[in-house]
Design goal:
Strands 3-5-1-14-11-12-13 form a 7-stranded mixed β-sheet, with helices on both faces. Strands 9-17-16-15-10-28 form a 6-stranded mixed β-sheet, sandwiched between helices. Strands 18, 19, 20, 25, 26 and 27 form a 6-stranded mixed β-sheet that branches. The protein has 17 helices and 28 strands. By secondary structure, it is an alpha+beta fold. β26, α15 and β27 form a beta-alpha-beta unit. The longest helix is centred in the last third of the chain and has 22 residues. α9 packs parallel to α16 and α12 packs parallel to α13. The protein starts with 16 loop residues before the first helix and ends with a helix.
């Protein structure tokens, strides 16, 4: 009898899709325990200082208002594992928008009215919120996000650059960006009589939520249940608990009743993280044939006064292209701004915009095709570490993409194609993202009726985790996918890491694969039927993920874009975009394509529409809703395609997969920017490329 084909790689339909479109899927704010109250955070209206007094009488007199929590009466916390969670613990205001009170009422409307009636007076201090290249407070940190060293240098980069016959010396800037998931951050919390805390939280990992709350409230992890069953997007901003999680638990403890908090969208910009702005100075030196001899990439960015978070934007430059010398460095200044945090492909997205724009400028200076320049400098080993790549499909992505896009049919001369008032151009950029894998645990259960049940505290943030984990289990167990049930999204399940760093499927899937392999072995060794109550095996991957791989493991990709720039208005329209990726074995072609296209679309927004502007007077971001913070709509993305190469990599995990959630955004903005330069002959080095920035150069 021939073996059934593997379900891995097939376009299995997302198993929670019907629940979502019919409204039966329940999100954090849709859990309403009996007697539930509603909380409304009150953000600070000053940029820096302290709370002088909170006048709560008028708010408490309103019908339905139960409590006003401030630093005077809020429950005391232990020291949280993240300083942004230490809310209502003192009178300090570190930045505008910091929560200074919480109004709790019978209804959301009552809580909002109470928040508006609250009168708060402040003592203000001078504030500093603007990032500049010459800020006197700039310093070099020891490490940057991800634990990477802030500075790395190979050889004498200054000398190599000065002596290079072809040089590029340019500064690029990317302003602050915000995640803005469709589902705002929300938490419903309740305390049981025995002191057990249950939270339904919009989070990318309920194990992390449980552990953070245990630290903050001085509890054992077993005293907390955190549930994140359905999550309407996060893009990094829900990677760790945010203030509303702690506020809801505090209010529930204070009132003795369940409390629900759904953050208003206008408050998100100040309390749930953002992509920090970066000023990036790049120097490239090359021989006349295009061989790179010097790469120098320095990042300037900001962090908050609450904690240090440094965007690791120069890190991808360390592994991208071969060069005899290289220097990558980060400098940061602590400002009176909200704490930056993760946003889809932190570091890689802004850093590769600058590097890939500079590579395009180098190709122009050389009179060389930008695809060929990248292939020429494709290294055999990782330049920074010298380790061999487990697999490196960059050249294949560039070649396949160029062929599918019709790249070599273009006229390489800038500003050479016109359609009436429209200037047409094409651009290319490469992409990379590291392979991250964390230890995970899972259980596999065989029932007497022949079905299977997998339990793992994975989180589905819209990626289709339930579906692909069922495919992994079905592949090992040689059973139809529909015969496998998946339980995820609760800290009552076997511990698993959060959905972040494109590591989710690789981490969770490895533990599922191991548990199913052990279960299958036990089933084959049995001489009798499966017991009436079934057979369960639990496994973890602590040992497998403990050491560093001897290989450099990264996903790669190539983006190709065509734009039309209106010469009279400065408006940029994307006509078509193509992405080709090398991400190991693709486990579900349907959900993978969705992830690639989603990332590419975010990259288009980064290039053309998305921007968060810091107001220097008031110290807050002016684009704080979806009316002013413009994400691409369907009309902005007329034609977009995602493809991949068949890449076999035995050095990753049992599935042979790499992460795909973030590689799609990396390099996408640079491809669009390079296309705009080709269309107009104008090189702008700051994002986004809005009409007001382009038009002065077109008139």
């Amino acid at each position: 009898m021939s073996q059934a084909p593997s379900p891995l790689g097939t376009p299995v339909v997302r198993r929670e899709g019907r629940d979502k479109v019919t409204g039966t899927a329940r999100y954090a704010a849709e859990h309403t325990p009996p007697g539930c109250l509603y909380g409304r955070p009150v953000p600070a209206t000053i940029a820096r200082g302290r709370v002088d007094a909170v006048h709560a009488d008028e708010a408490l007199a309103l019908p339905g208002v139960h409590a006003v929590l401030t630093h005077h009466n809020a429950p005391r916390l232990k020291e949280p594992d993240d300083p942004i969670l230490a809310v209502l613990q003192n009178d300090r205001v570190p930045h505008r928008g910091w929560p200074v009170a919480l109004v709790v009422a019978d209804t959301p409307e009552g809580a909002r009215a109470g928040a508006e009636a609250l009168r708060i007076t402040y003592e203000t201090d001078g504030h500093d919120v603007l990032l500049t290249e010459d800020h006197p407070g700039l310093y070099t940190p020891e490490i940057v996000n991800g634990g990477y060293p802030a500075v790395r240098e190979r050889g004498d980069t200054d000398r190599a650059f000065v002596t290079a016959p072809v040089q590029v010396d340019a500064t690029y800037s990317v302003g602050a960006l915000h995640n803005h998931p469709m589902e705002p951050h929300a938490t419903t919390a309740r305390w049981d009589e025995d002191g057990h805390l249950t939270v339904h939280d919009s989070s990318q990992g309920s194990t992390t939520v449980r552990d953070s709350l245990a630290t903050a409230f001085g509890l054992r992890p077993q005293q907390i249940t955190a549930v994140s069953e359905h999550v309407g997007g996060g893009f990094g901003s829900k990677g760790t608990p945010r203030p509303q999680t702690v506020l809801a638990a505090m209010a529930a403890r204070h009132t003795g009743r369940p409390v629900k908090i759904a953050l208003p969208r206008r408050q998100l910009a100040a309390v749930v993280g953002h992509r920090a702005p970066t000023i990036q100075h790049i120097r490239l030196g090359a021989e006349l044939d295009g061989t790179l001899t010097a790469i120098d990439h320095e990042i300037i960015t900001h962090t908050s006064t609450i904690k240090e978070f440094v965007e690791q934007a120069a890190v991808p430059t360390r592994i991208m292209y071969g060069s005899t010398t290289s220097r990558t460095a980060h400098r940061v200044v602590a400002l009176d701004v909200p704490s930056p945090s993760w946003m889809r492909a932190p570091g890689e997205a802004p850093g590769m915009y600058a590097l890939e724009s500079a590579m395009d400028e180098l190709a122009s200076a050389l009179g060389m095709d930008p695809v060929e320049l990248r292939i020429l400098n494709d290294p055999a080993n990782e330049p920074d570490s010298g380790r061999a790549f487990s697999s490196r499909g960059l050249a294949a992505c560039l070649e396949k993409g160029a062929a599918r896009f019709g790249w070599y049919d273009r006229d390489p001369r800038p500003a050479s194609r016109e359609e009436g008032p429209l200037l047409l151009g094409t651009g290319v950029a490469a992409a990379t993202y590291p392979v991250y894998i964390a230890a995970s645990s899972a259980s596999a259960h065989a029932a007497a009726d022949g079905s299977y049940r997998i339990r793992v505290n994975a989180t589905d943030i819209g990626t289709g985790a339930r579906t692909v984990l069922a495919q992994i289990a079905a592949d090992v167990l040689a059973t139809p996918v529909d015969n496998v049930r998946i339980d995820i999204g609760s800290s009552e399940l076997p511990d698993a890491p959060l959905a972040g760093g494109s590591s989710g499927t690789a981490s969770w899937g490895w533990s599922v694969h191991k548990a199913c392999t052990l279960l299958l072995r036990q089933l084959r060794e049995r001489t009798g039927p499966v017991p009436a109550d079934g057979l369960t095996v639990t496994a973890d991957t602590q040992q497998e993920t403990a050491g560093q791989s001897p290989y450099a493991r990264h996903a790669f990709g190539a983006h190709f874009a065509e734009v039309a720039v209106h010469s009279r208005t400065g408006e940029v329209r994307l006509r078509r975009m193509l992405g080709v990726f090398a991400a190991g074995r693709i486990l579900n072609s349907r959900t993978a394509r969705s992830q690639f296209i989603g990332g590419m679309t975010m990259g288009i927004g980064m290039a053309l529409t998305e921007s968060s502007t810091m107001d220097p007077v008031f110290g807050d971001y002016t684009e704080n809703d979806l009316a002013s913070y413009h994400v691409p709509a369907c009309a902005d993305v007329q034609e977009i395609e995602a493809h991949w190469i068949d890449e076999e990599d035995p050095h990753l995990n049992p599935m042979g997969s790499k992460g795909i959630g973030e590689i799609g955004i990396v390099g996408a903005a640079a491809a669009v920017g390079n296309a705009v330069r080709h269309a107009t002959g104008i090189r702008l080095r700051g994002l986004p490329l809005t009409p007001d920035t382009l038009l002065p150069y077109l008139l």
